[in-house]
Amino acid sequence: MKNFLNKYWCNENFGICYPLLKEIDMSIPISQQKGYNNEYGRYWTKPILMINEKHYIICSQWFSGFWNKLNKWIESQNQVPFIAYIVPKSLSKKKICPCCKGTTKNEYLIVTYNNGKEDIVNHLATGRCEKCENNYISDSIYNTYTRNKNLENINVQFVPITLLKSPTQ
Fold this sequence. Notes:
Mean pLDDT: 84
Largest sheet: 5 strands, mixed
Distance between the termini: 33 Å
Order of helices and strands: HEEEHEHEEEHE
Structural class: alpha/beta
Oligomer: single chain
CATH topology of the largest domain: Ubiquitin-like (UB roll)
Number of domains: 2
Strand order of the largest sheet: 5-6-7-4-8
Radius of gyration: 17 Å
Low-confidence stretches: none
Shape: globular
């Protein structure tokens, strides 16, 4: 595990100039922890990996030729599932977080679907709360995307908004 936190080992094995993983503190917004040595953002905020009861984010400084090595390694880890809450289209247009009432901003969620032969990558329009960092997808986009797909072959866990827990719960 220590190797993935060592930038020299990661450079030798993955060809990147930063540690593959960065340990994060879940009590601090992840967006404030994505920098390397308090400089520019060098880490993705999703997915969050949980390894030996600790949380990590993954280095984003990759070239396309290194993706296969990264994907195989991620799949071998105990990954905290990426969750997107399904909300009515009318609610997603309001740009207000149903959880904390913060402001949501438009983002594209990268979703991978394995059709049995290959992984197909799509970019789905979502909203992400800038305060609690929850992700929301409109029911219309969700229904269109998941039509005729086996949900077990999608790398994102879509959850009905009714199962959302507020910060006080």
